[in-house]
Amino acid sequence: MILPIRAFGDAVLRKECAPIDKDYPDLKGLIDNMFDTLESANGIGLAAPQIGLDIRLFIVDVSPLADDEDYAEIAEELKIFRKIFINAKILEESGKEWKFNEGCLSIPDVREDVKRLDTIKIEYYDENFQKHTDIFQDIRARVIQHEYDHIEGILFTDHLSNLKKKMVKGKLNKISKGEISVNYKMRFPK
């Protein structure tokens, strides 16, 4: 089932999310719905707050990037990089800082350069509640950091300089009022 994505201005996007346990009601169904929603919106990551749930759950599917020539060296790895992160905790961020033009399904039509470190160490549970501690790099680390921010109540626009924040303020106001057009299911703040 395709769920509506919450738009900028919705209070749930600013909440620090709560952990869940293996008995969370219909977790498998929720994860399936999140992947359906992500695919429908042509995204590469989706966090539970973006569908109105303040729980520590996000998904990543970077396979659409496998055809991008910028990622030719890791294309085969990207094709199969589809992961579920439950109760994630970033343990360490390291490596080189790099700028990348980020966007967000909750903030359509806004893209800005965000600086992040290129390597993360993260602890999380998968959909079977098996615990993992993994290190991710490159675009995969970037997408995970972006989605992790969501479960912490942080949006990519929070990483912008004060000048850039002022420059996008008008667009953000329009999004929060529903004065935009998107080609996926979206729910605007009331």
Notable features of this structure?
190 residues, alpha+beta, Peptide Deformylase, 5-stranded antiparallel sheet, two-stranded parallel sheet, 4 helices, 7 strands
What is this entry, summarized?
This protein is of the alpha+beta class. The protein has 4 helices and 7 strands, in the order βαββαβββααβ.
If you compute it from the alpha carbons, what radius of gyration comes out, rounded to the nearest whole angstrom?
A: 16 Å
Query: What composes the largest sheet?
Result: 5 strands, antiparallel
Domain count: the total is 1
Class based on secondary structure composition and strand pairing: alpha+beta
Strand order of the largest sheet: 2-3-4-5-6
Query: What portion of the residues fall into strands of 2 or more residues?
Result: 25-35%
CATH superfamily: Peptide deformylase
Work out the helix count. 4
